[in-house]
Amino acid sequence: MKTFSPIQPPHYFRCTRFFSHTTTRTQISFPAKVFFCQAKSGIDGSLNSKVVSPTLLAAEKEEAKAVLTLFLKKQGLSNAVAARTINKSDHFIDHLVSKLHSKHKSWYLAGRELTTLEIRDALIPFLESLFEEHGDILVDVVENYPNPPVKDKSAVPIPPSSPVLDSKKLKAVSRVSEVDPDGGNLPPHIVYLMELGMDIEQIRSITRRFPSFAYYSLEGKIKPVVEFFLELGVPKENIPTILTKRPQLCGISLSENLKPTMKFLESLGVDKKQWPKVIYRFPALLTYSRQKVRESIDFLLELGLSEESIGKILTRCPNIVSYSVEDNLRPTAKYFRSLGVDVGILLFRCPQNFGLSIEANLKPVTEFFLERGYILEEIGTMISRYGALYTFSLTENLIPKWDFFLTTGYPKSELVKFPQYFGYSLEERIKPRFAIMKKSGAKLLLNQVLSLSSSNFEEALKKKMKKMQVS
After folding, report:
1. Orientation of helix 200-209 relative to helix 116-134, angle to 10°
2. How far apart are CA 78 and CA 283, in angstroms?
3. Hey, is 233 helix, strand or coil?
4. How far apart (Å, rounded) are the C-alpha atoms in residues 274 and 235?
5. Residue 348 neighbours by CB distance under 10 Å
6. Angle, CA 99 vertex, CA 96 and CA 100 arms, to 5°
7. What is the CB neighbour count within 10 angstroms for residue 315?
């Protein structure tokens, strides 16, 4: 997990702020779906607390605090106010962590730790939807979770929002909520969306963010797009998430825009069989202009990537298209090239690296290894062998795992051979395996200690012990 607070993601945040400059007394009620949390015994899909070690849990709480802090600051709060809010929000932080466990249960069960980018991607959409729902009282929502906030709000002067824009949003939200006076029914397109699994609060949230959504017709706009996605193989339960991420999709012509764009992307190598996964991961891909996509593709070709490799990158990590070539891709490529890394191979293996800040994320990791006696050539070898190395947090991952490594008796050159060491859970994999090996009296190669399955690990130890007895 990589320390989040200094990361500057390019696309997630808007410039709206939390507070109005009048003193009000507000009471709200919460939709059950938003504020249901606390990990159960596993029956409902969440994790049993025994699965996640206390050390990892503490690290994830710090990561969640960093994500929330940056989100609050992006909305206009000062450092002091954001910090004060975090200090009052222990229950909400626990809720954010529980969402990580619920979303990535299988990864935790396999002993895999999340990177900062994965944590950010899991939590930011939730925070955005919460902000869209509660707006200028979101701080109270966070601080009072899980109870509805009832408190006087202090005045925080900010420039007034546009009356015209507010009026459009209010009309749009009212439109999705209005009931037919004759039949007492909601509008047909709203009923249809609810049948797909969306609830009225979710639809209102989308409408506040994108008012035009309220005016899309059912038969002319929404239904054709939804049915097209279902025909592609997109699971019905994924449709609400896709529309929440990119409601603009319903305003795009199937015949003139959506299908031609998909054909264009397929010509660039996107696997048509993987469209359900691609659309779910990054639905915005289908709304980018060909010029924007072509700029990214041209840069990937410039790096020496084949068309086949580019197609696989677009399929696995479609949001690579959202990165600016001049602001993100090119400077990051130059930096990794200075370490002696084959940038094309690195981008193919771990494109997430190219969404990180050079100053805040990449350089500190390089300096970490330099300070521990590695040379640039060795660091370049490590990142080449394990592309995800730079996506992990210094304080919560690299440093504690390095400290433990120093107690193992292995030379530091082993980490050059097997940098994947940093990708395993310290509490759930590394420490238990080393404890078993120490008890046996045998010593395996570092990669054998961690990469083998439990049965193969035990078998390797037995063979080593038998060889020791013979000699």
Report:
1. 90
2. 33
3. coil
4. 12
5. 20
6. 95
7. 19
Contacts 24+ apart (CB under 8 A), 79-87: 85/139, 85/142, 85/143
Report the candidate in 401, 394, 453 with the shortest Cα–Cα distance to residue 424: 401
Supply 265's token pair: 């992307």
At 97 the pLDDT is 87
CA nearest neighbour of 295 among 267, 324, 275, 265: 324
Q: How far is Cα 31 from Cα 12, in angstroms, rounded to an integer? A: 24
Provide the whole-model pTM.
0.61
CA distance 124 to 12: 7
**82, β-bridge pairs:** none
User: What secondary structure letter does DSSP report for 26?
Assistant: E
Gap between the Cα atoms of 442 and 164, Å rounded: 74
HSE at residue 9, side-chain half, CA atoms within 13 A, is 22
* CA Rg value for the chain: 25
Kindly give, in sequence order, each residue whose CB lies less than 8 Å from that of residue 468, ignoring residues fewer than 6 positions away: 441, 442
Rounded average pLDDT over 105-126: 75
CB-count burial class (<10 Å; 0-12, 13-18, 19+) for 78: exposed
Separation of alpha carbons 175 and 434, rounded Å: 62
How far the first Cα of the chain sits from its last, in Å, is 43
pLDDT number for residue 168:
65
98: DSSP letter: H
Nearest 5°: the CA angle 160, 163, 169 is 115
Give the chain's length. 471
Q: Does residue 12 surpass a pLDDT of 60?
A: no
449 is written with which tokens?
Answer: 């200690």
Q: What are phi and psi of 199, to 5 degrees?
A: -110, 170
Of 47, 71, 117, 94, the closest CA to residue 397 belongs to 117
**How does DSSP assign 101-162, residue by residue?**
HHHTHHHHHTTBPPPHHHHHHHHHHHHHHHHHHHGGGHHHHHHHTTSPPEEEPPP---PPPP
Tell me the pLDDT tens digit for each residue of 426-442: 999 999 999 999 999 99
Burial bucket for residue 411 (CB in 10 Å: 0-12, 13-18, 19+): exposed
DSSP class of residue 272 equals G
Pick from 76-90, 176-190, 383-397 the range whose average pLDDT is largest.
Answer: 383-397
- Token pair recorded at residue 296: 């990214």
Q: Give the pLDDT confidence of 291-326 residue by residue, as tens digits.
A: 889 999 999 999 999 999 999 999 999 989 988 899
User: 């991961």: which residue's tokens?
Assistant: 281
Q: How far apart are CA 236 and CA 229, in angstroms?
A: 9
What pairs with residue 27 in β-bridges? 150
